[in-house]
Amino acid sequence: MTEAYIVDALRTPTGRRKGGLSHVHAIDLGAHALKALVERNAIPADEYDDVIFGCVDTIGSQAGDIARTSWLAAGLPLNVPGTTVDRQCGSSQQALHFAAQAVMSGTQDVIAVGGVQTMTQIPIASAMLAGQPLGFSDPFSGSKGWQARFGDAPVNQFYAAQRIADHWGISRADMEVFALESHRRALAAIEAGYFEREIVPLEGVSRDETPRQTTLVKMAELEPVAPEFPSITAAVSSQTCDASAAMLVVSDAALKRYKLTPRARIHHISVCGDDPIWHLRAPIPATAAALKKAGMSLDQIDLVEINEAFASVAMAWQQETGYSHDRINVNGGAIALGHPLGATGVRLMTGLLHELERRQGRFGLQTMCEGGGQANVTIIERLG
């Protein structure tokens, strides 16, 4: 079996909701990352085998197989196909896994992988609620099979975030301290120029718009998202935003053919399911299963990126694994840098790769909670 390598990784800035990227068509947002990826690497554009993109809520400007339409909108060759993946928040991480599997199987050699989401134009859950019959509050309502198995228990991210906080004894004040540190780390990374190599500016936006100068006092003043979720506020939740990201994944043969220098090797890929009512807990069992299958321990992992969908998700993972917060989301997470759903997986991996290089670390692990009670885990090995 051949190995799968990452040759390049880049992203747009994260544009805050109604911010500098909010007017950019979703197709053009994806096209910008793809065009930059092709231009930065010495592979003829017509020799790419596929484009695999993550995107959630594929309606409106995000409909019509946005992997394919973004490639074409970038002015790239007609012969290259594209496909769009929806594994909810893990969509582009799964896109990376599909690309790695295609390369490892020997069926493809050069794949552009990434994701795109414009959450200003297409609010979260737009597709989920579109076309629901009158009186249906969510897509699970009315399913006899679903209700027979899970009853009327809410499949709700706020419910899950609160349930996790309660189960692991994480207070609202604890989460606010965690969230403040996410912003501090992101702002420090921006000022230090850590993101400059990975960001391709767009529409005059050259740095992430989402990190905030805030305080614990300001956070404490916010109202919960709903009375039944007293610990969950906007301050301890990921930010909606607009962004795209792209990576180049290739085979051994492509490395030799195009004289490329690999930056990382895909060491492990897996995905795990969990109880959908817990919804956001899956990174914990997924990490344990991935490490077992890879024959590794967390002691061998230099850096971890776990998506900060909510502070309680990352904090419960840390509490359960005992992994040091000093090596988790070291340049801030989604609370500060945003969670552009379909693009987040590759955005996280882009940051993980660059930070491993900066620190000269060897192994990095990425995981994230996903709708339906799922979680992907990717372990990469930095090369060079």
UniProtKB/TrEMBL annotation:
Q: Which InterPro entries match?
A: Thiolase, Thiolase-like, Thiolase_C, Thiolase_CS, Thiolase_N
- A Pfam match is Thiolase_C
Q: What is this protein called in UniProt?
A: Acetyl-CoA C-acetyltransferase
UniProt family annotation: Belongs to the thiolase-like superfamily. Thiolase family.
Locate the Thiolase C-terminal domain: which residues? Answer: 261-382
* EC number of this enzyme: 2.3.1.9
Acyltransferase as a keyword of this entry, yes or no, is yes
Under the heading Gene3D superfamilies, the entry gives: 3.40.47.10
User: Would the keyword Lipid metabolism be found if you checked this record's keyword annotation?
Assistant: no
Keywords tagged on the record: Acyltransferase, Transferase
Q: Name one GO molecular function term.
A: acetyl-CoA C-acetyltransferase activity
Cite the Thiolase N-terminal domain residue spans from the record: 5-252
